Amino acid sequence: MKLQLAFFRWQLLFYAVAAGLAAVSPARAQTPDEGKLPYRQQPIDYFGPETNDAIARLQARLEKHEVRLEFREGQGYLQSLLEALDVPVVSQTLVFAKNSVNARLISPENPRALYFNDEVYVGWVPGAPAIELSAVDRQKGAMFYTLRQQSEGAPRIVREESCLLCHASANAQGVPGHLVRSFLTDPQGNPTRGYSRITHDTPTAERWGGWYVTGDFGSLPHQGNLATALDLLEHERNPDGPGRTVDLRQRLGAAKYPVLHSDVVALLVLEHQLHLQNLLTRVNYEERLERRPVAAAGTVAGNPPQTVTETEERLVRYLLFVDEAPLESPVLGGSAFESWFSRQGPRDRQGRSLRQFDLERRLFAFRCSYLIDSPAFDALPAAARTRVYARLWKVLSAAAPAEPYDRLPARERRAILEILRDTKPDLPESWK
Ligand code: HEC
Predict the structure, then answer these.
(1) Could you tell me the distance, in angstroms and rounded to a whole number, from the CA of residue 413 to the centre of ligand 1?
(2) Domain boundaries, given as residue ranges, for the chain
């Protein structure tokens, strides 16, 4: 696929600087290893023609007329594209902060809708000239594309370079990656103050600034749904109170969006998933570019014994949710996202799965990410993958693992090992 270079390049740069995205996040200190990695050079060759992701595969199928996209009044290719990419419409979340490309069009009355599955993300702003897309390439990380919303001519998905202005910043681990922020806005949706990188470690009280949130979240503190001057005023009066609810039908009308949700569980999963994918890309790049950062404390067995790198240790910690922010109130999604997500499996002999939700005190019942089963994890360079597996094994199989892994009780660690043994085909021999 050809690269398209000049997609509103200057306009993008303007937004990137205005949104504080081109620079390092002011909200949280970055560690030095999060500098940008040279992804243009071999062996990464990010902009090289080779791609291995779901969107490039869809474009190839479009060219061979194996699949058709249907253009409909109002939403253009959106619904048809979601179907072709197997992305459920119930994964919809809505962000009204002007953080991204179509900032001019995004507002509390016209939020940007995001949809996702394990590998693909779709961004749609009503009235925007193009749909924004990204997908995980198992070797290259996040790949970016657009699809013009025009009914004439064959639909064509085009690879974009300019997106990396924001999407390869320190907030995406310095590799081509995904972003989630939480910024309070003014009533027009202009970001004012907040956090440039949200992960499952971020307390919910700091999340969802600039986003709508729907579902049942009891007294959970959060910054979502602060879209009007009145919302903001009331929040200012009681900043530590429970998060606000919103009636989207009233704010957006019934017809514009395919569904009227910005599901709280979808948001929680999205925030978990994006950061993990960025970490996987970072570990992959560091190994292949031979830019391994200083060793971390964790030594793994082998002959001779090896030490995981600092990034690999962060990956293991994140995979096992060791620093996850607790849910201070149980949550329940209001859309069918939860059931869609858990249905994906795979399940072990006892019917357990890493996609099983907890939603009482934390996100998942078993704290090992389902993305351990993703192509990007399996495609980690062999040396890095071996070290990560050995470190995971040491933590999961220990009678009493050292701090911080002692936060996972023995029973849960045993369950995780059992689920992985039943469901993950290519575990190292020593795990069986
Ligand atoms: C001005 C900075 C900026 C630029 C440039 C930008 N994005 Fe983003 N993008 C964001 C932010 C911030 C988010 C997180 C959601 C939000 O706040 O809107 C995001 C989210 C996304 C998502 C959802 C997955 C994710 O990473 O959260 C997709 C898909 C996406 N962008 C596609 C694109 C494409 C395609 C381009 C280039 C045509 C692009 N973006 C350019 C800032 C940017």
Answers:
(1) 36
(2) 3-252, 282-431
